[in-house]
Specification:
Blueprint lengths: L16 H22 L15 E6 L5 H12 L3 E6 L11 H11 L3 E6 L4 H8 L3 E7 L5 H15 L6 E5 L6 H12 L3 E5 L15 E3 L2 H5 L4 E4 L15 H8 L3 H4 L7 E3 L12 H4 L6 H19 L4
Helix pairs in contact: 1-5, 1-11, 2-11, 5-6, 5-11
The structure holds aspartic acid.
């Protein structure tokens, strides 16, 4: 059956549940194959799914995990990777975003993986080029592959997401990870709860289809998983945010506050983690933390989205 997966992955909001399931199914397979190869139980799979295709990673904001895992994913599928460096490019000479992407397409880009501080930038690029566009995080709007990798990690751990309570704690207002996760987890049947300082909770957030908890204990009670988020300092212009020490005391997950979480519940964080703020080192490195497993899922999910967007899966 021909895949109906869209050519661009711009957000989770417009994906159907079956499309999300399609990514998770394929990514789960890639993740198992990579694990078997690492454990020496199988030869490293050589997926010539995208031979000769060119994947450009175009990041206008800092990244550690997302850019590197897209590049590893592209290599693993047999594609070529071109890593666009904004500061060494003609953007510094005044070239517009539209002209930049048209030129990259003329060079041969089949996929543009875009991170940009402006919400909507990947959609605008998708209108300007014929290549596939994958949103790798746009402002405070969405970060679709992060939500997909979180869903894969959680589903493997919890068995299913149906009926599970997932709490997202921190700076909900400025977080593209929160927005994509609320859409993704609700579409997969979870009950999503958000919590954080009142200045960091957007008004009317319930309309996205989530519950709101006003305190950390309320957020952690009966949860199957908690996802801790960083304060997005770079997106906050005003000063109405708590200081780091106050924030850590009231909203941070430490050995003490972890006791409030049901015993089998797990802890996630998309990174970068500020140790001692959102998570204490004990929690971050503890056995209930899935942070490194999330990173591992990221490569597999990005392999799956590249293959599906290019109609090659
Ligand atoms: N890495 C995630 C993002 O790019 C989360 C964060 O930066 O806090 O949105």
């Amino acid at each position: 059956m021909a895949s109906e997966f869209p050519r661009h992955l711009l957000d989770i909001e417009s994906l159907r549940r079956e499309q999300i399931e399609e990514v998770l199914g394929l990514a789960g397979r890639f993740k198992r194959e990579r694990a078997a190869a690492r454990a020496g139980k199988a030869r490293a799979p050589r997926h010539q799914i995208l031979p000769g295709r060119i994947v450009v990673t175009l990041f206008f904001e800092a990244s550690t995990r997302t850019r590197s895992s897209f590049e590893v994913a592209a290599h693993a599928l047999g594609a070529e990777v071109l890593s666009f460096q904004k500061d060494a490019s003609s953007v510094t000479k005044g070239e517009s975003l539209q002209d930049t992407v048209r030129n990259l397409e003329a060079i041969g880009a089949d996929v543009l993986v875009v991170r940009h501080p402006a919400a909507g930038a990947p959609r605008a690029i998708a209108r300007a080029v014929r290549a596939s566009v994958i949103n790798a995080g746009d402002g405070a709007h969405e970060h679709p592959t992060q939500a997909l990798l979180d869903a894969l990690t959680l589903r493997e751990k919890l068995g299913t997401l149906e009926g599970k309570v997932i709490s997202i704690v921190g700076d909900i207002a400025h977080s593209r990870v929160a927005r994509s996760n609320v859409h993704c987890l609700s579409k997969l049947g979870s009950r999503v709860r958000v919590a954080g300082p009142s200045t960091l909770l957007p008004a009317g957030v319930e309309k996205l289809g989530c519950e709101v908890a006003r305190t950390l204990p309320d957020a952690l009670r009966d949860a199957d998983a908690v996802m801790m988020l960083r304060i997005q300092q770079e997106r906050i212009a005003d000063a109405r945010i708590p200081g780091t020490r106050d924030y850590a005391r009231v909203w941070g997950l430490s050995a003490r506050t972890l006791e409030l979480l049901p015993p089998r519940a797990v802890v996630l964080h998309p990174g970068p983690v500020n140790r001692g703020v959102e998570l204490s080192s004990e929690v971050m490195d503890g056995e209930r933390s899935l942070v490194m497993d999330q990173v591992d899922s990221g490569v597999a999910v990005r392999m799956a989205t590249l293959a599906l967007c290019l109609g090659a899966a």
